[in-house]
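=== RUN LOG ===
request id: a7f3
mode: sequence -> structure
chains: 1
length: 424
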Amino acid sequence: MEFHNRCMSSSPAAATHSPSIPDQGVAWIAPGTRAYYQTNLALFLAGVANFSLLYCTQPLLPLLSAHFHIGVAESSLAVSVTTGVLAFAVMAAGAFSESVGRRGLIFWSLAAAALLTLCAAFAPSWHLLLAARAVEGVALGGVSAVAMAYLAEEIDPRGLGTAMGLYVSASAIGGMGGRVLVSVIADHSSWQVALASISVIGLLSAVGFFFLLPPSRHFVRREGLGLAHHLRLWGGHLRHPGLPLLFAMGFLGMGVFVTLYNYASFRLMEPQFGLSQTQIGFIFTAYLCGMVSSSIAGAWSDRIGRAPVLVIGVLVTALGVGLTCVDVLASVIGGIAVVTVGFFMVHTVCSAWIGRLGGAAKAYASSLYLLSYYLGSSVLGSFGGWFLDRGGWNAVVGFALASLAVALVISLRLGLLTRRGTLS
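=== RESULT ===
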C-alpha cells in the first residue's frame, strides 16, 4: 500500500542538486534479462518483509492487552507508535539515501527492523516493547522511501511498470500474509513465538534481497542538500490548491481503515461470534478484495474521472463500516471486505492524482502524502480504541463514519476544483 515517486525539482537552483538523470551510456536493467528477474525477486522480498514486519502486531492486540494488563486503546500503540515514527522517518530516509545509496540502506533497514521485532517479542515490559516498535519505525523508513527510487533509477522504462506493480503487490501480500501467519502461530503457540517467526522471515528476506539485487548503476551520490532546500519544495506543495486536500484524504482514509482492522479482532472475539485467533487472522485475506478494487479504480478514474471514483470509494467504505454494526458474522466479515474495497479505491486514486499534481518535485509530494497516510494510521488508529473502551463497537463505527463524512466533503471539493479547471 505504498506510493513513492522520485524526480527533479523544477527550479533552476534546485536542479543543481536534483536527482541526476541516469547516464544513458550505462545500460538499464532490461526486461527478460537475469538481472531483471533478480531485481524483481529482491524487491518482492523487501516488500513482503517490510509490511509483514510493520503490521505483525495488529492481529495480536487482544493478546497484548491481556498479557500486559492494558486497555484496548493502549494496546493499539503496538501498531500506532511504529507507523507514527515511520511517517517522519520516510521523509528523512529519502533525503538520506541521496548521500549513502539505495541498496545498502534497504538491506540494513530490513535487517534492523527484523532484529527489533525479535526484541519486541521477548520484551519483559510493555514500555520496552513499545520502544522496540518505535525504533523499528525508524528502520522501516529506509525501505519505504527508497525501494521504488531504486527501481525508477535502474529498470528500463519498458519494464518499469511491471516491476513497480510487483513491488506494490508484494507490499499487499506482506501486509496480509504477515497478519495471517502471526495469528495462526499465536493460536497454536504464543504471541512471542509468532513475532519471533516474523523476525526470522524478515532476516532471511533481507539476506536474500542483498544477494539478489544488482548493484546500482545509475545512482549518483549527492552532497550538500540543506534543510532549506527540502522545506522550500515541501512548502510549495502545501500551498497547492489540491494537494493538501489529497493529503487529508490519505490521513482520513488510512485512519478509518486501520481503526477497523485494529479493533475487528476485539469485535470478533465477542461471545456472539467467539472466533479463535486463527479464524480472525484469516479475515485479513480481505486484502485480496482491495488488490482487485485497486485495478478497477484505476480503470474507472481514466474513464469517468478521479473525483467521481474518489466519492464512490468513500461511500463504499462507509457502507462497509455500517455493515459491521449488524450482530451477524457474515455481515461483519462482509463489512470488513467492503471497507477494504473502498479504502483501496480511495488510496489508488489519491496516489495517482498526487503523481499528476506533484509536478517536477513528485518525490516531495509523495513524501507528504506518506506522512499524512501514516499519521492517520497512528493517530486515528489509536483514537478509535478510546471509543471502543467507552462506547463499544457502535462508538467506533460512529467515529469512523464521522471521519468519512469529512472525507466525502473533501472529495466533493476536489471534484468542484476539477470542474473549474483548477486541477487536472
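=== NOTES ===
Residues 1-24 have pLDDT under 50 and may be disordered.
The two ends are 24 Å apart (CA to CA).
=== END ===
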